[in-house]
Amino acid sequence: MARIRIEHLRHSYVPRPARESDWALKEVDLEWADGGAYALLGPSGCGKTTLLNIVSGLLRPTAGRIFFGDADVTASPPGERNIAQVFQFPVVYDTMTVYDNLAFPLRNRGVPEARVDSRVREIAALLDLESMLPQRAAGLTADGKQKISLGRGLVRSDVNVIMFDEPLTVIDPHLKWRLRSKLKELHQRIGLTMIYVTHDQTEAMTFADQVVVMHEGTVVQVGTPVELFERPRHTFVGHFIGSPGMNILPCRLENGVARFAGVAIPTANTAAETPNGARTEIGVRPEFVRFASAGIPVRVAAVSDAGRHQIVETRHGDTVIRLLLDERDQVPTVAAHVSFDTAFTRLYVDGWLAG
Amino acid sequence: MSARTVNQKAWWLVLPVLVLVGFNAIVPLMTVVNYSVQETFGNNKFFFEGVKWFEMVIHSARFHDALKRQLLFTAIVLAIEVPLGVAVALAMPRRGVWASVCLVLMSMPLLIPWNVVGAIWNIFALPDIGMLGWTLNRAGIDYNFTRQPVAAWATLIAMDVWHWTSLVALLAYAGLSAIPDAYYQAAKIDGASSWAVFRHVQLPKMKHVLTIAVLLRFMDSFMIYTEPFVLTGGGPGNATTLLSIDLVKIALGQFDLGPAGAMSLIYFLIILLLSWMFYRVMTLGEAE
Amino acid sequence: MKRMTWLVPALYIVFLMLPIYWLLCMSFKTTNEILGHFTPWPQNFTFENYRKILTDSTWYMGYVNSLIYVVINTVMSVAVALPAAYAFSRYRFLGDKHLFFWLLSNRMAPAAVFALPFFQLYSAIGLFDTHIAVALAHCLFNVPLAVWILEGFMSGVPKELDELAFIDGYPFWKFFVKIFLPAIAAGIGVAAFFCFMFSWVELLLAKTLTSVAAKPIAATMTRTASASGYELGLLAAAGALTIVPGAFVIYFVRNYIAKGFSLGRV
């Protein structure tokens, strides 16, 4: 069991990086407590897989250090780090049976056969694979194979951390939730540190205690799902999380009060002072926008039915403001006003939460 | 991929191919069949003889000898070229400039006209003035491929290995390149040794290309004509007279149409049969 | 241990290059030097052999002839294979599987079996000793190969592309030439490469079907070796020149070699 600490990590795939854009990871400092369930969330290309591979030892970072507990493992190969990794598509040894697949990591390390047998059966029971042990691994379905991948990681008793690199990508949609629940159950039973990389916010939010949101090689915010939802520290986080994402409105700051379309918008936070030329914006989630008798004048542009609620898209000039309505509510015909819940309306300067 | 639709008009698209290949295949084959069952005493007069030529060929010692030599040759070259090609492919860099350099240099023997291949090795192995021949004789080995059957065989096999191993290597290389990195990464995490990686990751994934490589090498080595012909002419004596060489001697050299025809058909059938058997054996373990 | 693995391909390539080096060596030596005694490199470097070949029409015409029938064959094989491959890739029709296997079986036919019949056939239709005869004869092996390779590439193009074009009102030929062919350009390249390769290297049929007018370089070379004794230098130079087109072609397709082989369709 170990705490993972990442210090001043930077990584570039280019041998002699010259520009900012040559760096896949720009500056990462993180600490993960023992036994937690973490998610690395971000769009494609944000550096999350790079970070994962550095933690597992498959990649040596250009700069920075990683500590497992108190030991500096930056130079250690994966075999010595006591980690396990589950990849995007199932990696199984086709020619071997399920049993032999699970036994493989132990046999490679010279574990006595009796112990191998007990461990394999123990993990197979945990993963509901017992009945399939004698079958050839190649014949299983995608979710079965991913379970084998997972099992190969769990079967080693010295494993500290299990990493998942978008493991549900090839699983059928109706089986995804089953595997996800299994992972959550496993985490509660075994208590290993689990790091889950994904671009799917639902997966991240349901799995993790803490989510690390990444964007273009940097960590933008670390927090619980609720924190990320209610108090995004960056407009990217607001925009990326939630469906639909946060509304971002450009605004002008006059005497500490934000104004949009001539209307004063009270915000939960204020900016001390703004440097000249800074971009000021207001962020508010559609969940906290309401139709009102007074406020920002808008016209209704489109309505989409999302099951139990409706997403109403309104416009003021070029700016789009979305809000949610209960499915039974009436949508105003054309012209209306919207107002925001002040507690959840925030001011952003140059993308970052002000104050 | 959506299923293919039934459309009989597709035959029009296939027609040119059918005509071209059919013309080249059916007419000559019919000629061959014709000859195989007829006897001629010249003057374009033919007499139907039934299976006489087939019986003669099947029972002829000459045919048996040529067939035995051919089987031995094919077995030896397969046993050398396949492992060697795979070993080279495994050891080659998978990315970068050196990979391209390797690929280009390795492909060269494959694009040399077959008679030139024979000529190259002929010049190379000449006992007193060829680089190989001179070196071997200087090193104390009595080597003369034009007079000694063993030397002729050794040179012939060396030539074929030189000529065709690259095909196996290129195919194996392509198969290896198709293996996603994740497999190697997982194996590293599982603590697998290089041998285990080869046995459990690389070899299974190369099965398809290796099947093709073995089949191709089997067929082509069984049909080989030009290279050995230019190198040794089938000699010394008939030590290196393989099936094709013998057939051409009979057909174009002696114009023994009947035996040539019969031998041709038997030859073709042997190849088809052995290829089919090989194919079945190699795809035996494969699931759908 | 890992560091030494480069030794394997290195040694292998040395093995491959040695006979070629020797060939080049010989081509730059005079006959006297060759027959005199063994020298690892030319003591009296000479271009005489090459000069002879490039100025003597009985020699250089051999190259020209070979190139002519190879190009004719490549163009013919690919052109004819394209519609057929499309049919196999997109449609099911009566006897399609059998037809496909029959085509492939021709690849397994020993050239030796066809030597005599081809000789008689092409003589009978008056095409003996023409480039077109060799080009046609090589179609026996190259067309099935081209169909096989092209069908593989075509199957990688989704059928939706065809359907979209038809919905948009494209007549079939326009769709084929303007939309489909560019989509499988790599496949056409690979097929053309292999057709070129097999036709350029094949000797038996090329020699059998020609005598003077369309004599390929291969035949000219064998005449030299047997008839006028050992003009080894000349022979070596001629051989060296035959490697040149191949080297050119490999250089141009070097990026596609792995991709083409990876289709596993050779």
**Distance from first to last alpha carbon of chain C:** 34 Å
Enter the CATH topology name of chain B: MetI-like fold
Succession of helices and strands of chain C? HHHHEHHHHHHHHH
The largest sheet of chain B has its strands arranged as 2-3
Judging from the principal axes of the Cα atoms, what is the shape of chain B?
Answer: globular
Measured by DSSP, the beta-strand proportion of chain C falls in under 5%
Largest interface: B-C, 97 and 101 residues
Q: Report the CATH superfamily of chain B.
A: MetI-like
Report on this model:
The complex is a heterotrimer of chains A (355), B (288) and C (266). Chain A has 8 helices and 22 strands. By secondary structure, chain A is of the alpha+beta class. Chain A has 2 domains: 4-235, Rossmann fold; 244-353, OB fold (Dihydrolipoamide Acetyltransferase, E2P) (Beta Barrel), CATH 2.40.50.140. In chain A, strand 4 and strand 5 (71-72) form a beta hairpin. Chain A is globular, with a radius of gyration of 24 Å. The model of chain A has no long low-confidence stretch (mean pLDDT 86). Chain B has 288 residues and is mainly α. Chain B has one domain: MetI-like (MetI-like fold), CATH 1.10.3720.10. Chain B has 13 helices and 3 strands; from the N terminus they run E-H-E-E-H-H-H-H-H-H-H-H-H-H-H-H. Chain B has helices spanning 10-36, 52-59, 61-91, 97-107, 114-125, 131-138, 149-177, 181-189, 194-205, 207-222, 226-232, 243-253, 257-282, and strands at 5-6, 38-40, 46-48. Chain B has a two-stranded antiparallel ribbon. The longest helix of chain B is centred in the N-terminal third of the chain and has 31 residues, at 61-91. Chain B is globular and about 75 Å long. Chain B starts with a strand and ends in a 6-residue tail after the last helix. Chain C starts with 6 loop residues before the first helix and ends with a helix. Chain C has helices at residues 7-27, 31-36, 48-55, 57-90, 96-107, 111-124, 131-155, 159-167, 172-183, 185-201, 204-208, 217-226, 232-262, and one strand at 91-92. The longest helix of chain C has 34 residues, at 57-90. Chain C has 266 residues and is mainly α. Helices cover 77% and strands 1% of the residues of chain C. Chain C has 2 domains: 1-46, no CATH class; 55-263, Orthogonal Bundle (MetI-like fold), CATH 1.10.3720.10. Chain C is built from 13 helices and 1 strand, in the order H-H-H-H-E-H-H-H-H-H-H-H-H-H. The radius of gyration of chain C is 23 Å and the shape is globular. Classes of the chains: A alpha+beta (355), B mainly alpha (288), C mainly alpha (266). The interface between B and C is large, with 97 and 101 residues.
